[in-house]
């Protein structure tokens, strides 16, 4: 259970922070940057939800919760259960990845195939979802880099990979089922 009765602790004033297992690291540590980027993504999802409605809003709400799960997973470097912990670390699961895949497939079934790359834009929600897509890709790149130097949960990387795809397909849904997609015209301004 989380209890936040005081927001500032002053423990980070020297440029360090605590990971989920209590280990102190620099605030610029790759692990902190990775889960910080997932938190940034969550904030952008919150902005997208300001204009989302219906199923997309509901799905974005689930994604926000998943992103907190992801942050909890990434902030715990120990992949094994810590014998001194009161509870096992929260880890992303393959079922969360599978849910995204099902949602992507369902949305994509309603879309015409693309004949060009899509420029970020169109409807306000689509533009917000494209920002989410790019931040998700950055979080994924950071997670992949982190995995080269530390052990992380493979489901976390898979989730981020599918999530950026989810945002792309959802942006097309938000663009009137793809009819209002802004398509790239190669060399148009030469």
TrEMBL record:
State the reactions this protein catalyses. Answer: 2 cob(II)yrinate a,c diamide + reduced [electron-transfer flavoprotein] + 2 ATP = 2 adenosylcob(III)yrinate a,c-diamide + 2 triphosphate + oxidized [electron-transfer flavoprotein] + 3 H(+); 2 cob(II)alamin + reduced [electron-transfer flavoprotein] + 2 ATP = 2 adenosylcob(III)alamin + 2 triphosphate + oxidized [electron-transfer flavoprotein] + 3 H(+)
Q: Which InterPro entries match?
A: CblAdoTrfase-like, CblAdoTrfase-like_sf, PduO-typ
One example GO MF annotation: ATP binding
Q: Where in the cell is it found?
A: Cytoplasm
Name all Cobalamin adenosyltransferase-like domain ranges.
Answer: 7-173
Record keywords = ATP-binding, Cobalamin biosynthesis, Cytoplasm, Nucleotide-binding, Transferase
**What protein does this entry describe?**
Corrinoid adenosyltransferase
């Amino acid at each position: 259970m989380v209890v936040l009765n005081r927001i500032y602790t002053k423990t980070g004033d020297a440029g360090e922070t605590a990971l989920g297992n209590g280990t102190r690291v620099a605030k610029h540590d790759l692990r902190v940057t990775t889960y910080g980027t997932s938190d940034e993504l969550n904030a952008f999802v919150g902005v997208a939800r300001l204009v989302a409605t219906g199923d997309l809003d509901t799905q974005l709400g689930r994604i926000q919760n998943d992103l907190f799960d992801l942050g909890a997973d990434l902030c715990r470097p120990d992949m094994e259960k810590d014998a001194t912990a009161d509870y096992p670390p929260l880890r992303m699961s393959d079922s969360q990845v599978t849910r995204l895949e099902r949602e992507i497939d369902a949305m994509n079934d309603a879309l015409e195939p693309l004949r060009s790359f899509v420029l970020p834009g169109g409807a306000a929600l689509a533009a917000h979802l494209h920002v989410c897509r790019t931040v998700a890709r950055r979080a994924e790149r950071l997670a992949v880099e982190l995995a080269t130097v530390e052990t992380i949960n493979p489901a976390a990387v898979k989730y981020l990979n599918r999530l950026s795809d989810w945002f792309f397909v959802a942006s097309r849904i938000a663009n009137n089922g793809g009819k209002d997609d802004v398509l790239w015209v190669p060399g148009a301004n030469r």
